[in-house]
Design goal:
- The chain has four domains: 49 residues, no CATH class; 101 residues, PAS domain (Beta-Lactamase, 2-Layer Sandwich); 154 residues, Heat Shock Protein 90; 128 residues, Response regulator (Rossmann fold), CATH 3.40.50.
- The strands form five sheets. It has a five-stranded antiparallel beta sheet, sandwiched between helices. Strands 9-11-12-14-13 form a five-stranded mixed beta sheet, with helices on one face.
- Helix 8 runs parallel beside helix 9, helix 9 runs antiparallel to helix 10 and helix 12 runs parallel beside helix 13.
- Strand 13 and strand 14 form a beta hairpin.
- By secondary structure, it is an alpha/beta fold.
Length: 551
């Protein structure tokens, strides 16, 4: 390829005297132009025939100029059907109203490109979710825009499904949390409603053991003691139910400290001795002659021991034996409770620690219980870093339970669990007693007065406030769940009286959860006691309040 140039030849006096032919080799330039044209043709062919991407060229006003095969596949229109029409035809009606297509062109004109993701309209009326970009075109002979889109409807569907699933999971979780809160509140109210009458029964039984007329009558004393044991047992069942619920939801907190396991075992055995004697069961213990101190929650340790021993007493017949041994193994202490009782069937043994589980042979309900005690023991043992194991050779061959707890010895002095509390603390004490239950109010007043206290009993918080305004008191004992004004409101109003700011106040209530105790202390009480409240427990609380004030 040559470029030929023919120019006239001029003489010095400006006459044309021939011609000059110049030949320039332009082969390489011609080949480059041919290749560029071929490349453009190929790109145009690729753009027009690609199925993966829709390429729509439109003029400055949004009128469609070209429409490739990919756009045909995505939107369902042939090129002949859309050419000369506005690009608005593939936008949803609401997007047309808001001028989305025009706004997209304006962004592309200003920035050179405009990215976009939205739902578009197909020829059959269905919708396609497209992701794409619009670029401006400024070439010789044409100015406009190229819109390149990809159909991601399937991906959007998956994302929508995932979002729906996440939303559903969130709703289920919120419902579960709400159900747990409702359950906790239900258990708290249930505890309150059950413990109030238990408290009355317990106070009346204590009265029987202390009134002068009944002290010498053996049958009355035995009956009162049996009533008190039954009340304590029922209260422990309620506490176990509440504690198991809290343990399973992670709301049960341990109050760790130095605990002498030997003393704890002796305390539980002594408390169970009367029941064992009544049922003709030989109850013995070993390995408790020397202190074995570990770091644990003293209340929860006793709760575990009580449940295991009570379980053994429940399923050991008259004439049977229960042996409780305290052992040491490596860095663990082991409390073993072995009985000669009913035993456990091999198929039920793996389920023995499941909540509400009771063996079929023991399911006649003639032995009582809800099947929650051992499940609670398992939960609390694991919270301590320990474990509980059960073994049995089969029905009628007895059972053996081993409670393992980390030793972690602590070299600190302990107060014995059975250390007597001086009951003279109530003598001459001026007590303001508040409870909306008239029977419980009268019974507890009588019990306190038998111990030498001067008691003013009020059946409502407002009456108690009036009494506190006019009289002097050394101790306030108040219920929490009361009409008109509850215990929290009462103590708050009481603490506003100058002379009642520092008077010890103890909340006596059927609400026995940890958060209930914290709420009582935050409100202004010095201590929180869950019903049924025994006299030794009350005296112990008074003793602790006095000790804290001395510190």
């Amino acid at each position: 390829w040559f470029l030929a140039r023919l120019l006239p030849y001029r003489t010095a006096d400006h006459h044309i005297d021939g011609a000059v032919l110049t030949l320039i080799d332009v082969t390489s330039r011609r080949q480059a132009q041919l290749e560029a044209r071929t490349s453009d043709d190929r790109l145009k062919l690729a753009a027009l025939t690609t199925d993966d991407y829709g390429i729509i060229v439109q003029d400055m006003d949004g009128v469609i100029v070209s429409w490739n095969r990919g756009a045909e596949r995505i939107f369902g229109y042939k090129e002949a059907e859309v050419k000369g029409n506005s690009i608005d035809m593939i936008f949803l009606p609401e997007d047309r109203v808001h001028g989305i297509a025009q706004a997209e062109r304006a962004r592309a004109a200003g920035a050179g490109r405009a990215e976009d993701e939205r739902w578009h309209l197909r020829r059959d009326g269905s919708q396609a979710y497209c992701s794409g970009v619009m670029t401006s075109i400024d070439a010789a002979g044409f100015k406009g825009y190229a819109k390149i889109v990809r159909d991601v409807t399937d991906q959007k569907g998956i994302e929508s499904q995932q979002q729906l699933q996440l939303k559903l999971e969130r709703e289920i979780r919120l419902q579960a949390e709400a159900a747990i809160r409702l359950k906790d509140e239900f258990f708290a109210v249930l505890s309150h409603e059950l413990k109030n009458p238990l408290n009355l029964i317990h106070v009346k039984a204590e009265l029987l053991t202390r009134v002068p007329e009944a002290r010498g009558i053996a049958v009355v004393q035995e009956a009162a003691e049996a009533i008190r044991r039954s009340v304590v047992g029922q209260a422990k069942i309620i506490d176990d139910l509440l504690d198991l619920s809290r343990a399973r939801t992670g709301k049960l907190a341990l109050q760790r400290g130095p605990v002498d396991v030997s003393v704890a075992v002796q305390s539980v055995v002594e408390a169970s001795a009367a029941d064992a004697a009544i049922n003709g069961i030989d109850l013995s213990m070993s390995g408790v002659s020397v202190p074995v101190v570990i770091r644990a929650d003293a209340v929860r340790l006793e709760q575990m021991l009580w449940n295991i021993v009570r379980n053994a007493l429940k399923f050991t017949p008259r004439g049977g034996r229960i042996g409780i041994a305290l052992l040491r193994d490596s860095h663990f202490i082991c409390i073993e409770v072995a009985d000669t009782g009913q035993g456990i069937a091999p198929d039920f043994l793996p389920k023995i620690f499941d909540m509400f589980s009771q063996a079929e042979a023991a399911g006649r309900r003639d032995r009582g219980g809800l099947g929650i005690g051992l499940s609670l023991v398992k939960q609390i043992a694991e919270m301590h870093g320990g474990r509980i194991e059960a073994e049995s050779a089969g029905l009628g061959k007895g059972a053996r339970f081993r409670l393992w707890l980390p030793e972690n010895p602590v070299a600190r002095g302990l107060r014995p669990l059975d250390e007597p509390i001086d009951s003279s603390a109530l003598v001459g004490l001026r007590v303001l007693l508040v409870d909306d239950s008239l029977e419980a109010l009268d019974a507890f007043r009588t019990l306190l007065e038998l111990e030498g206290a001067h008691v003013q009993a009020e059946a409502g918080a407002k009456q108690a406030l009036a009494a506190a305004t006019s009289d002097e008191f050394d101790l306030i004992l108040s219920d929490i769940g009361m009409p008109e004004m509850d215990g929290y409101e009462f103590i708050d109003a009481l603490r506003r009286l100058p002379k009642m700011v520092s008077v010890p106040a103890i909340a006596l209530t059927g609400f026995g959860r940890a958060q209930d105790a914290k709420s009582a202390l935050r409100a202004g009480f010095n201590a929180h006691l869950a019903k049924p409240v025994s006299l030794p427990v009350l005296l112990s609380a008074i003793d602790r309040i006095k000790a804290s004030k001395l510190e």
